[in-house]
Structures are given as structure tokens and as C-alpha cells.
Amino acid sequence: MRKYLITMRLSASRAFDGGLLYILSGYLLKSACLFILLMLWRALAQQGADLGGLSLDQLLTYTLLAAIFGEQLNVLTPATTAFWEGAIISRYMRPLPVLAQLMAETVGSWLPGLLLYSVPTLIIAASAGLNPGIAFLANAGTGFPARGLLFLISLLLAMALGFAMDFIFASLVIYVKNASYQAYQIRRAIVSLFSGALIPFTLLPWGMGRVFELLPFGSTASAPLLIFVGTGNPARLICLQIIWNLIFWAAALILFRRSEERLVSYGG
Amino acid sequence: MDNIRRLIQLWGISAKLDLLWFLRDTKYCILTILADIAASLSSVTGVFLLAERFGNIGGMSKDQVLFMLGYASIVNGIIALFFSMNNTGWISRPVGRGQMDHKLIQPVPLWMQLLTEGFIPVSGNSLLVCGMAITGYAAGQLGLAPGLLWILLFVMLTICSVAIILGCSYIAGSLAFYAPVAAEEISTTVISLFNDLMIFPIGGLSAVLRMALCTVVPVGLAAWFPASLLLGQNGVPKPDIPGVIILIMTITVAMLAVTSFRKGMKYYAKRGSTRYHNRGHRS
Fold first, then answer.
1. Tell me: the pLDDT tens digits for B23-42?
2. For tag attachment on chain B, is the N or C end more exposed, with fewer CB atoms within 10 Å?
3. Contact A73/B235 with Cβ under 8 angstroms?
4. C-beta contacts of A123-130 below 8 A and 24+ residues apart
5. A interface test, pick of B196, B213, B219, B276 with most A CB neighbours within 10 Å
6. SS3 assignment, position B276
7. For residues B215 and B220, what is the distance between their CA atoms, to the nearest angstrom?
8. CB-CB: which of A33, A43, A205 is closest to B49?
9. Alpha-carbon torsion B63, B68, B70, B73, what sign?
10. Rounded Cα–Cα distance for residues B120 and B114 (Å)
11. Which H or E run contains B61?
């Protein structure tokens, strides 16, 4: 365990290698997007739009949490970048399983974001009257410990599924000559539409949300967020997440093992 | 006249190189084109679906939102077509990586290189084509009958929007002359800011916020404001900001970009890049 903790610590400190400007500019962008999206939902509610069973507070909380847990709900490991940069070889020289290293590195890379973006955003939002904690307690009532536990389980399952999906993408990238840019673009397309992280499924037309909720991508973002705001059926959502985890992890392990034989990585 | 001839020659060379990539590595090139199409369509689809669901967002109907999204795709498509290769639009990358030296040893003025070497008409046309198709479809649905003046206004506004996005990228990217590692990706952040925010019809936001988004962080000028001007006769409430603001902002941003980039180049000429070790690796 200590080896993984050290890997996480190294990864967390590496995020600052490019300087504070490097890391803060990304957070500034995320903050601007979050602010505009919150204002847009507010404007929609003011014009009397039907928010698909969500109250304005629930919708704002959903969007805020999607931003705060952005990195956890859209898991991006360094795998494809490492193929591209020729850096994957160093992972094979360390006394740790490659996939476990990549996971530890990813979790470590989340720490600066949680400290420098998520916590400040949460504090600023709470001081502006949008407090997810209070909204959660008001929604869950006396059942808040159980709902809190279900949310945590769902969040963990979402992250686990995110890792499996990333490893599948990484395996596919090996098959298409390290096309990491293309894989990134396709992932971006999927995440922005099918995960529910940007636009909650209940706001989509033609009942598309009900279909998207059943797809694996919905289990990576929408499921824990719906459980938190109290509009989803926790048992159903968590069962779906478990099923997708089993399928995707099996596929990820098989595909990655087979792809390793074809792995060619060069760069610098 | 010589400059124009040279520009056309250089665009021709870039086009030939792009065509060669397509011919020699067709599968990979097509994969790139498809990935670009998927990413760009998905980003506008979300907002379109919202418009479909709610009928009206920020004072715009479903088809008007679609028109705005088509306009946004055209603007992004022009940037992808003319300024993608060698990161000419994402200028903080070559600056931060110390690659301006590569350009300075070429027997062509720097401005001419920046204007021409990013041209990828084969692999980079997908977004522009999608944008034109979306805009054309939306215009048809709206029953627009564009005259010559309207088309000229469309072209002028598109040029302004492209210039504002690239200008902001160059203003921020000039920081990479002074902090090459920390600011290497700052142009990416700026362009992502536009990509992520320009697709929202911001007409429903407060007047102060709208003004801020058309001046301080001019993402509103990248699609919403010009689309509202173009749809002015089509039931979209005219923005309470004078139309000339887009021209003023374009000139201001362009002047700031040129000034900051020139200043940065002077600094670069004195200090060079500190990114490379003696053995050739970049830090």
C-alpha cells in the first residue's frame, strides 16, 4: 500500500511542475463554465421552464457537484499520454502492476484539483447560497446517513467504471497506432453528451434521458449525482453500475493484456 | 501584390502537405476527421437538445439556437482549417516550447508563416463543412432569404469572431515568452474557454453579465452576439449592446495581440528559450 501512496504523492506534486499558472488557468476555465451554466439554469427556471422533475436547487446542486467531482466522474488516466510520449516504458520497469500504477497516479493527480478547485468552489458556492450539504440534508431528511452511504458507494462505482473505460480506450489506442488525440476527441464527444455530467438527462427531449441512463456512460456521472440530489432510484442505479463494472472490467483486462503484445511507444 | 502571391504559394504548399498525409496514411487521417466531427457535433448537440426540450432559450427559438450553433461551428471550423497545423492558433505551444527559432530561420516573414502554415484543407475541413450545413439547414427552417448585404455582414462578423478568439489566444500566449513552462498551454485554455462557452445563448442572462461576456471575456462575441445581429429581423430580441461593439472589440483585441506578441518577441530575441538541455531534451 505504501508504494501506491508514494506513487500518488509523486503524481500530486508533479501537477505543479508546470508552475501555478499552468494549473490555475484550467481551474479558471472550469469556474467560468460552471458559473455560466448555473446562470443559464437560473434563467431557464425564471422563464418558467419545466425542469423535468428537478427543482432549481436540485438542478444547481447537480451541476455544482458535476463540476466539483469533474475529474472523478470523467476518469482520465495517463495511459494514452504515456503511449504518445514514449513514457509507458518507465511503468514497466517499476515493481508494481502497470494498471495499478496508472490508477494510483490518476488518484494522486486529483489531489491538487480537489484542494485548489473543488474546495474553494464549494466554499464560494455555499457563501453565495448554494450549499450542497444543506440541500442534501433537506432532501434526505432523517435518512441522510443511508443516502450518504449510497452516494459514496455510487461515486466509487462510477470512478471504478471510469478507470475500466479509460483502459479500454487505451487498449484501442494501441490498435490504432497511438492515436491518442483521436481517442481524446471521441471520449470528449461521449462525455459531453452521454454521461449526464454537463446536461442532466431529465432535461433532454424525446425521453432520451431514460435510454441514456441505462447506457454505461450514464453510470459514470449521472448515477451518483441523481442519488445525491434525491431524484434517482439508488438501488436501480447502483445495480446498473455494478453490472457495467463487471462487464467493462472484464473487457478492460482482456483487451489491455492482448494489446500489450502490440504496444509500440516512442517519443520524448 | 508580391505578398499576396507568396501567401497563395505558401497556402498551396500547406495544402499539398495535408493532401499527402491523407494519401499516405488515409486510415489514420480519416479517423482524425471522424473524431473531430464527433467531438464538434456532440458539443453543439447538447445545447440544441436543450433548445428542442424548452422551445426557447435566452430569447432564441430552437431553429435560431441551431443557427447560432451553426455559426459557432463555422467560426471554429475556420480556425481548425487555417490555424491548426504547427499550433499557429495555439501560439503559446511553439512559444513555450522554444520553437520560434524554427520560424526565425525561415526566409519568410513571421506573420506570413503564422498565416499560412496552419492551413489543412483536407484533414481540417470537417468542422467548417458541418457548420455550413447546420447554418444552411437552420436558415432554411427560419425562412431566411439572405441578400448580398446580409451575406457580407455574415462574412464580416465571422472574420471578427475568428479574430477575437485568435487575438485572445495570442494575448494570453505571449505570456509563454516570459514563463515558457507555466504558460505553454495557456492558449489551449483560452480557446477551450471560447469553445465551451460560445455555444450558449446568453440572452437570458442579466444585462451586466451579457455586457461582461461581450467585453471583459468576449465569448459572447464568438457566436451569440453576431448570430443575434444576423437574426435581428427574425424575431430575436436585438441585443441591448450596440452592434459596433464587435468591431471595436476586434480592433482592440487585434492591437493588444500584436503589441503583446511583438513585445514578447523582443524579449525572446534577447533571452531565447531555456527549455532545452544540452543533450537536446526539453524540460
1. 998 988 888 888 888 888 88
2. N
3. no
4. A125/A64, A130/A38, A130/A57, A130/A60, A130/A61, A130/A64
5. B196
6. strand
7. 8
8. A205
9. negative
10. 13
11. strand B60-61
